[in-house]
Amino acid sequence: MSYSLVLQHPDIASYTLGGLPATTPYAPGIVRIAVEPDYTLPDPIAAELTRQQIDFGIVPDMPFNELGLIVSDMDSTLITIECIDEIAAGVGLKDQVAEITESSMRGELDFEQSLRHRVALLKGLEEGVFQEVYDYVLQLSPGAEYLIEECKKNQVKFMLVSGGFTFFTDRLKNRLGLDYSYANTLEIVNGKLTGRLQGRIIDAEAKASLLAEYRKKLGLRKKQVLAMGDGANDIPMLQEAGIGIAYRAKPKTQQNARLCINHCGLEAVRGWFL
């Protein structure tokens, strides 16, 4: 299989890519340079590309329609926010909960324990806060709708798997026409949160397990499955996939991903492929 060094930036055509072969953009915002499979980008060039906020990676020359499944995290990946932090604002605890969330995403805390702790802090909150967050705060990440439309055009299944909550994943699944979604279920009694979770916990291991389960169900090879996420709880899922992408991710997650998107939006996921 042939390989390419792929560079992505919306205005890539106007950049001087010193030290790299002269080339014309493969597509708007994308440059592809043929390389050997064992090619390593020299550190000075990598540093210069990073300085110019150009996303880059060495990828196999694979058509997008050869993928069969994309598995995506929700919070800070498909959407721009951490839903639990915004929910916590309803009880005046956003800063406290956000600090725990950040530590968990950096891999400094056990995910399940930190999740249960944060949910316990929400006890007594009216469930109407969820709809307010969905309607007025939640935003899709740049390029999300484009990527999902490309999946539909190329018969690539899309699964949303989140350590967040089903209230949001269910609505995004219906709104965007996603194929599958999994998340945690909050216990609600008489319209108020009890501070507890119900059923299976979607943690790091569950994310990786769901990816493997659907890879088998769909009869796919490992290289046909792509996963993307931003937090430490996404690392097992990224490693289980044929292609793991860290999207605007924590350092530990980037170190465990094949590709990183730090500057572009989710349209860059499509841009790695032919």
From TrEMBL:
GO CC aspect terms: cytoplasm
Known cofactor(s): Mg(2+)
GO MF terms held by the record: L-phosphoserine phosphatase activity; magnesium ion binding
Catalytic residues as annotated in Swiss-Prot or TrEMBL: D73, D75
GO biological process: L-serine biosynthetic process
Entry EC no(s): 3.1.3.3
Domain of life, per lineage: Bacteria
Keyword Ligase annotated: no
Pathway: Amino-acid biosynthesis; L-serine biosynthesis; L-serine from 3-phospho-D-glycerate: step 3/3
Keyword Amino-acid biosynthesis belongs to the record: yes
Enzyme's top EC category: hydrolase
Catalysis: reaction(s): O-phospho-L-serine + H2O = L-serine + phosphate; O-phospho-D-serine + H2O = D-serine + phosphate
Alphabetical list of Pfam families matching this protein: HAD
Record key words, sorted: Amino-acid biosynthesis, Hydrolase, Magnesium, Metal-binding, Serine biosynthesis
Family according to the record: Belongs to the HAD-like hydrolase superfamily. SerB family.
Protein name: Phosphoserine phosphatase
Organism encoding this protein: Neisseria arctica
Lineage: Bacteria, Pseudomonadati, Pseudomonadota, Betaproteobacteria, Neisseriales
